[in-house]
């Protein structure tokens, strides 16, 4: 497949409400899309990180640079999606940037032979149960009101963002008010091993899992914490490859894994992590990065693989956006439907994309 053009489109889309985590508050989805034009078809992908390196070390400005100067030159003019990882391997890190590039190329490739990404990855269902991630609130009544709304919409599982000072009481309040709803928490690295006794207080609430309590490079700390609490530990930030997953599983640092294709360099590595986890009997679920429809579509396809036995952070477009870049994804009976069209199965609506685009750059043009 010959690449003719690679474009980067900055987009900024307001969120319907602020999303607060232990590391910061987001009010706008501010990122970029990649558009890859080839001799066979066109492909799209979304960069998953934000303008500031708070969730992970990558951020929009750095990704733009590494794509332009180091990644795109290594995959042009002729490449297949499977070659992207080996060809860019020499460039350390930058997995979210690599994921965007691989996904746009994979989309073009799959479209060129009319195959949906779900079929390519091995999806075994056409719809997946949806969970919703609920940010840190100013008060417990505000939290209860929001959770009530999401449950009324039909979400199958609630994830509460936690941090020191916002953990036991909000969890207790939601448990008491909503009974045995599927409930889990995500700390985004906000605790240390010294908090083990405090985190053990969450054991009584029967949580599905506790996501990433400690620093991302602290696999041993998670293994030690796992010996001191009953709530299953799930790793997110710590897992950036299938090798990481194998290590964490071997060291008993997690009993569940959150797979975000972006964090691990793309859908091909995400599938390898799924396969490693399934081989070890470790349940996985699909994480989210507040993606627009461009990222949401292929995430839904991944979430339809058989090892994804827990509901993912795969909510409806309207959870975050009054207007999405694609046809909106909707929740139906608590489920999200996997796109069925070729490639990632979605594309930006041109007029909407134009309105939300703040800048466009050409990273490669074949002469
Ligand atoms: O896409 O619904 C979503 C967001 C889910 O909570 C979510 N993601 O650590 O899992 C996570 C966070 C990262 C958000 S980064 C701004
Ligand atoms: Mg997380």
UniProtKB/TrEMBL annotation:
Classification via SUPFAM superfamilies: Enolase C-terminal domain-like, Enolase N-terminal domain-like
Domain Mandelate racemase/muconate lactonizing enzyme C-terminal: 141-232
Cofactor(s) required, per the database record: a divalent metal cation
The entry's keywords: Lyase, Magnesium, Metal-binding
EC identifiers of the protein: 4.2.1.113
Top-level taxon in the UniProt lineage: Bacteria
InterPro entries for the chain: Enolase-like_C_sf, Enolase-like_N, Enolase_C-like, Mandelate_racemase_C, Mandelate_racemase_N_dom, OSBS/NAAAR
NCBIfam families: menC_lowGC_arch
Protein name: o-succinylbenzoate synthase
Source organism of the structure: Lentzea flava
Taxon lineage: Bacteria, Bacillati, Actinomycetota, Actinomycetes, Pseudonocardiales
């Amino acid at each position: 497949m010959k690449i003719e053009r690679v474009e980067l489109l900055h987009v900024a889309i307001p969120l319907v409400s602020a999303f607060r985590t232990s590391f910061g508050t987001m009010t706008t989805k501010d990122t970029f899309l990649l558009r890859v034009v080839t001799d066979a078809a066109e492909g799209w992908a979304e960069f998953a990180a934000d303008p500031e390196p708070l969730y992970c070390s990558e951020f929009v400005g750095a990704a733009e640079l590494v794509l332009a100067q180091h990644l795109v030159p290594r995959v042009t003019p002729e490449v297949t999606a499977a070659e992207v990882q080996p060809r860019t391997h020499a460039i350390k890190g930058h997995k979210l940037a690599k994921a965007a590039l691989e996904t746009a190329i994979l989309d073009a490739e799959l479209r060129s032979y009319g195959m949906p990404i779900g079929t390519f990855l091995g999806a075994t269902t056409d719809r997946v149960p949806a969970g919703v991630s609920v940010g840190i609130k100013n008060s417990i009544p505000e939290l209860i009101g929001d959770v009530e709304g999401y449950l009324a919409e039909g979400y199958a599982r609630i994830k509460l963002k936690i941090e020191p000072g916002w953990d036991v009481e909000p969890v207790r309040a939601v448990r008491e008010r909503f009974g045995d709803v599927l409930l889990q928490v995500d700390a985004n690295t906000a605790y240390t091993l010294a908090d083990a006794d405090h985190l053990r207080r969450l054991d009584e609430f029967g949580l599905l899992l506790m996501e990433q309590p400690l620093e991302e490079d602290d696999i041993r700390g998670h293994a030690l914490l796992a010996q001191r609490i009953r709530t299953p530990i799930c790793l997110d930030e710590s897992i950036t490859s299938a090798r990481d997953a194998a290590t964490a599983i071997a060291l008993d640092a997690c009993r569940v894994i959150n797979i975000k294709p972006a964090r691990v360099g793309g859908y091909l590595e995400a599938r390898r992590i799924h396969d490693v986890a399934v081989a070890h009997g470790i349940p996985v679920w699909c994480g989210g990065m507040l993606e627009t429809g461009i990222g949401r579509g292929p995430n839904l396809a991944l979430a339809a693989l058989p090892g994804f036995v827990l509901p993912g952070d795969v909510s409806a477009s309207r959870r975050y956006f009054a207007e999405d870049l694609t046809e909106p994804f909707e929740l139906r009976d608590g489920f999200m439907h996997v796109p069925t069209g070729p490639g990632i199965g979605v594309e930006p609506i041109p007029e909407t994309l134009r309105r939300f685009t703040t800048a466009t750059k050409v990273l490669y043009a074949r002469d």
